[in-house]
Amino acid sequence: MSLPPLSPEQLVKPRHFELRMSLIFGTLFISLGTHLPYFPLWLQAKGFHAEQIAVILAAPMFLRVVTTPLLTTLADRARDRANVYIALVAASLLLSMGYFLTPTYAMVLAVSLALTIVWTPHSPIADSLALSGVRRFGSNYASMRKWGSICYLCANVAGGFILAATGPQAVPVIIVLALGAALVAGLLAPRMGRPRKASPLSAAEIQHAAPSLFNAYFLYFTFGVGIITASHAFLYGFVSIYWKSIGISDSVVGLLWAWGVVSEVCMFLFFNRIFASVSVVKVMVIAGIGSIVRWIIFPLVWPLGLGIAGFFAVQSLHSVSVAMLLIGLQRMIAETVSEERTGAAQGIAYFFNGFFMAAVTLASGPLYDRLGVDGFLVMIPIAIVGLVLIGLAARSAPKRPVRGGDERSLVDEARHTVAGK
After folding, report:
1. DSSP-assigned letter for residue 190
2. Contact by Cβ (8 Å): 383, 113
3. What's residue 421's pLDDT?
4. Which residue from 71, 303, 337, 323 is spatially nearest to 219, judged by alpha carbons?
5. Average pLDDT over every residue of 321-332
6. How many helices and strands (H and E) does the chain possess?
7. What's the rounded Cα separation, in Å, for the pair 263 and 149?
8. H-type helices in 202-245, by residue range?
């Protein structure tokens, strides 16, 4: 079916399009770069125990798996996606102020659930606006999106130094200020009109195309990726709390998180030179093994006296266990899924990743309560299960790819799939 024609207004490139989108990406990722590493520290400072922290972190993950596709579909059908983006950022700003209320368990959980509904769609809608500019005007996606990664990294580092000076009570303040900046940038968002094709997370497209994706190779592969990704839940939920418990300062915690992001970006930059000729299954096996090695080493770093340098070394494995996993997923979709079903494939992969991550995050609280840092060892069998599924996928792989994928575009696609950033 042919795509609808662009209106005369949509053929005119908005002024300073790339600059305006760069501002959106930059401000969007400041709040995310603060929330992931430091929100668990704020929860702990407010007196919540590990199981409560796990529920507060995991419950929104279950919810957003359902709500995010619905809201991105709404954005696709709106007169302009920028208006939906602005409304969601404004709602996020207002709801985030709920963290200044008396921090009872019920209150924080309720605020977190409501906030995730309007906060999580920011990134896919911003991606949708940017990619419309890429298709219509030849804009460079990477040159815009890189400011998101840069600001995420800066938020990791700066957040650590701010917390070192003020304590964890600064976390909600930083998030509110960052969302305020995101709202200002959102008001400058270029107006692009309706998209010509549904966004990657469109629920309508998933429903239409998903049945044809229910083949053994695709399902084993996406299940495997989702489970290996979920083995990182213990890290995301409790590593900052663990580092603080052994006396590592907030500023160094920020640097450790930032180092993981730096190693991830380095893999994006050099993947083509190192792994361009490696099959997608082998790429995924390397990523899975990297995850297992990471979870084996992590509990040993401090007892063996390897110190902070040892944690920096382990964080370097983020380039393998996360970046290669994302790139491999995009390669699989490009090689085996026809273009008109790519959106559905991305949506199903998002669902599996989100669901399994939420489930393991929920279990991570009791694990940390009982095992402390040794909870990382429980992530090993989870990653092994993911590897087994990748092996089953290899046995049912199609003989020939549906279409060849340009490696550089696949790396760019994986780069903007990173959630979580």
Report:
1. P
2. no
3. 45
4. 337
5. 86
6. 18, 0
7. 12
8. 203-209, 216-230, 233-245
